[in-house]
Amino acid sequence: MELISNAARSAKWPLYYFAAALGFYLVILDNSNVLPDVVNRQLLVESKNSDYKVEPQFAALRPVMHTFFEPVEGGCCGMSEQAHEDLVKAWEDAWQMHGWDTKVLNEADAKDHPDFEAFQQKLIDSNVSEYDRRCFWRWLAMANQVNGGWMSDYDTFPLALTGEMGLELESTPGFKTWGGHVPALIWADKSSWDRIAKLMLQMISPDLDVLMISDMMVLLYLRRNLSEEQMGVSLWKNSLYPGFPYIKGDEETGPKIVCKWARRYLAAHISHTSCHKAFKKNTYPKIEGLTIVDTAEKRAQAARIMYRDYQDNCGQ
To answer: Which member of 33, 95, 155, 201 has the lowest number of beta carbons within 10 Å of its beta carbon?
Structure first.
């Protein structure tokens, strides 16, 4: 018996999806010139001097942060194939320097899941792009990990989220997202990854009433139609900085990191949209000769600058 009726599946929410798909980051970024308090979020980390303490049993261990990368031949999404590879390498370096081990999953990890072929057929029948198919594959790849675990997009870079903190946050079961319906930073146990993957498989259809079939939009659809109990959700927050935690600087030095902002967020999600917005607001890390068409292509270089600035100026 399906958890969601056909009537509910065909319900129309054009205004909601328009806001979710096109305005999610833009609304937040429009407020990025003031303190993040205006976003009205409940964040785990308040400041460098917060009362957060790491339990001694977690101090010597390193959790694993996974990401998923399977190249699209010739590149995609405003980036060359090499630029994607450079961004993955920058992602690995940043998380490893922040107290984590890293693991990059790929198509082979997803194919080992028993639902892969059913997923793939539904995605093809629904005319889902090569890139967005890969976004769905990552759920299967994570469900195949022995204990589930952490996953982030490879354009998500650590700020306050150290390895020690990660070990404490994963100490209780369930499905936990710190990016809301944007799957940029998630921890879940194995059964919870598999549960969400199977719910997505149930929903994917050419007739699904979303602006586009992507894992982000299907996750949002599930969130709007199912209870937390049905989804197995134990935490659902927005604790990621949308873009670069910078303010406009002078022409010589370029934008400057704002530690008071950066320390309040677990990580920074430097999405395509946020990079484009940062360039227009002069808050994209200083790269000589950068143009607006390069903002996605040069994300690896920008991410390395941001992470170095955070380590040098806002260190834990």
So the answer is: 33
